[in-house]
Amino acid sequence: MKTHLTVEAEPYEFTLDPASTALLVIDMQRDFILPGGFGEFLGNKVELLHPAIEPTRRVLAACRQRRLTVLYTREGHRPDLSDCPPSKRERGRLKIKIGDEGPMGRVLVRGEYGHDIIDELSPLPTETVIDKPGKGAFFATDLDLILRNIGISSLIVTGVTSEVCVQTTTREANDRGYRCLVLEDCVASYFPDFQRATLDMIKAQGGIVGWVSTSARLLDAFENLG
Which of 76, 137, 155, 162 matches a 20 to 30 Å C-alpha distance to 181? Predict the structure, then answer.
């Protein structure tokens, strides 16, 4: 019985051992994806993120079935905003800022309805959720400690937005020695040009940041594993 998967990817195939691989679901939160959240307050069309939901759901189900480690991240801040730099809160001169009351509760504040993961991708009670105050999932969190303690060396990366939290986290992971496979249909941006540029940067120069593939290719590799 095979124990390793080979996934067709760019710039070349990505090989992983399910036992040392984790699925990372980055910031699939109501505040970024649904109307009435921070993403919309920034002036974005949140529906541009929606195509990533169903492919991510399929990948999530497959990873759970095969007992891969699943971790989530959520960007947000403590209720007293002590971990939110004033420069971040004031940027954009928004009418409704981080910490202000919005249709889904206080914007990007931990414990509020808008801060949590969308229903379609809701974490299981046994799955780890990393709350982060910044764009990168390794900044001011215990993500690296957790991954190393459970023997993870490869990450399947999904989430939003491609050019901000996904790219930042992937670069942080790469610098820490993790091998990253970004699924292009499981990540999304409010800006199609940014989406394309981000994926090109990740896989450029022989995969200088990571590999890029699709959910279909990963699922095919799972099926071939048996």
Answer: 76
Q: Is 180 a catalytic residue?
A: no
Is 132 annotated in the active site?
yes
The answer to whether 44 touches 36, Cβ cutoff 8 Å, is no
Options 27, 31, 131, 185, the catalytic residue: 27
Is residue 95 flagged as an active site residue? no
pTM of the model: 0.97
Catalytic residue, chosen from 31, 84, 97, 132, is 132
DSSP H or E segment with residue 86: helix 86-90
Could you read off the pLDDT of 172-205 as tens digits, one per residue?
999 999 999 999 999 999 999 999 999 999 999 9
Q: Which residues contact 166 (CB under 8 A, 6 or more apart)?
A: 26, 157, 159, 160, 182, 187, 198
